[in-house]
Amino acid sequence: MDSTLNISALIMAAGLSSRMQGNNKLLLDWKGTPILHHTIKNIVSAGFREVLLVVGNHEKEIRKIADVFKEEINILFNPYFESGLTSSIQCGIQAASDQTKGFMICLGDMFLINQIEFKQLAQFHITQELNDQVITLPKVGQKIGNPVIFAECYREQILKNSDTQGCKFIVQANAAKVKYFESLSKHFLTDLDTLEDYEQLKKSAL
Fold first, then answer.
1. Is the CB of residue 73 less than 8 Å from the CB of residue 40?
2. Which residues are CB-contacts of 1 (< 8 A; sequence separation ≥ 6)?
3. What string of DSSP letters covers 143-198?
4. DSSP secondary structure letter of residue 18
5. CB atoms within 10 A of CB 177
6. Is 75 helix (H, G, I), strand (E, B) or coil?
7. How far apart are CA 99 and CA 54, in angstroms?
8. What does the longest C-alpha to C-alpha distance in the chain come to?
9. Interval 4-62: pLDDT, tens
10. Residue 144's beta-bridge partner residues?
11. What's the rounded Cα separation, in Å, for the pair 143 and 88?
12. Contact, 15 vs 56, CB < 8 A?
C-alpha cells in the first residue's frame, strides 16, 4: 500500500437497505460481481494506510465477498448495526490505528468512485493547510457528495455522537474547518437507495 495516504478508510457495509424491498444493495450484481466488491477493490487499490470494513446485516454473505481481500482489510462486526449508521462509524473509528491522520467514511454502495478519484480526494485532504483540523467533502457543481474525510482530531466527537444517522451535525458544528474537493465526477453523488435507483443505473451503463 502507498503509505503516503495516512488515512484510515472505513467502509460501511452493515446497513439494513430498508428501502430495497428485502434486497441487500451491497449484494446486487454489477458487471458480474457484487457492488460491495467494487467498492472494496477501488479503496484498497487507492493505497490507504488501512481499510476497515464494518459488517452487520447479512454478515455471512458480506464476509464471503470480503474474503478476497482478507490480506488487505480488517473486518469488524457491529453488534448494534440495527440502531443506525452512526454505530457502524463508531465501530470503525474505535478500531482505527492511533497513528492515522484521519478517517474516510465511505458508504458501501459508492462503488462507482474509482481508485484515482479516491486517491485524489485523500491527497487533497492531506495537502490542506492545517490538515490536522480539516473536514473534507467532495463537491460536484453545487451538490455535496460523499465520502467525507475527518482529521484525526474529530475521533472523540464522532465516538460521542448521539445522532444515529451519521455525522452531519459534526460537520455543521465545524463548518469553518470544512474544505471542498471540487470534482466533475458524478461518482461522488451516486449511491443506491432503492431498486429503482439500481435499475436506472444499469440502464444508463448500457
1. yes
2. 44, 47, 48, 49, 72
3. EE-S-EEEEGGGHHHHHT---TT-SHHHHHHTGGGEEEEE-S-GGGG----SHHHH
4. T
5. 17
6. strand
7. 20
8. 45
9. 599 999 999 998 776 666 679 999 999 999 999 999 999 999 999 999 999 999 999 99
10. 139
11. 25
12. yes
Contacts with 51 (C-beta within 8 Å, 6 or more apart), sequence order: 8, 9, 11, 40, 43, 44, 69, 72, 73, 74
Q: Are 83 and 163 in contact (CB under 8 A)?
A: no
Cα dihedral 129, 132, 134, 136 sign: positive
Q: What CA–CA distance (Å, rounded) separates 35 from 42?
A: 11
Q: Give the Cα separation of 152 and 154 in Å (integer).
A: 5
Q: What is the pTM of this model?
A: 0.93
Residue type (1 letter), 164: T
55 within 8 A of 77, measured Cβ to Cβ = yes
Q: Which three cell numbers stand for residue 20?
A: 430495497
